[in-house]
UniProtKB/TrEMBL annotation:
Membrane topology, record value: Multi-pass membrane protein
Name listed for the protein in its UniProt record: Uncharacterized protein
Transmembrane region(s): 12-35, 47-68, 88-107
Cellular location(s): Membrane
Domain of life: Bacteria
PANTHER family, alphabetized: NCS1 FAMILY PURINE/PYRIMIDINE TRANSPORTER, PURINE-URACIL PERMEASE NCS1
InterPro entries per the UniProt record, alphabetical: Pur-cyt_permease, Uracil/uridine/allantoin_perm
Keywords for the protein's UniProt record, in alphabetical order: Membrane, Transmembrane, Transmembrane helix
Keyword Transmembrane: yes
Species the sequence originates in: Vreelandella olivaria
Protein family: Belongs to the purine-cytosine permease (2.A.39) family.
Length: 108
């Protein structure tokens, strides 16, 4: 895991930063202004396939970020609170129940 993070994280950050830089520079050439918001870029291109790919990409990115930031840490916290009684899977189920009930009943 350490080796994967050591190799994977810096390379991914560099790769995606490079892609963001190239796309932003491309919008400057193509549209005459630097667009940094992906939704603004997609809005200016009249292409249904591009819109569908962009929507799926935004969805995958949003779900991935929310899982890493809002689901996995509380599941591990609950599992570490009572390791003999709560596994990571049970901690995830508890987290999901609390999250869904907070959305359903308006708790924030």
């Amino acid at each position: 895991m350490k080796l994967g993070n050591l190799l994977g994280l810096p390379l991914n950050v560099a790769f995606f930063s490079f892609i963001a830089l190239i796309i932003t520079a491309g919008t400057l050439v193509l549209f005459g202004e630097a667009l940094t918001n992906p939704a603004d870029i997609v809005e200016r291109v009249d292409s249904l396939p591009l819109t569908i790919v962009a929507a799926l990409t935004f969805f995958a990115a949003t779900v991935g970020i929310n899982l890493v930031a809002n689901f996995i840490p509380p599941a591990y916290d609950l599992a570490n609170l009572f390791p003999s009684k709560i596994s990571f899977k049970m901690g995830g189920l508890i987290t999901a129940v609390i999250a869904f009930s907070s959305v359903r009943y308006g708790f924030r």
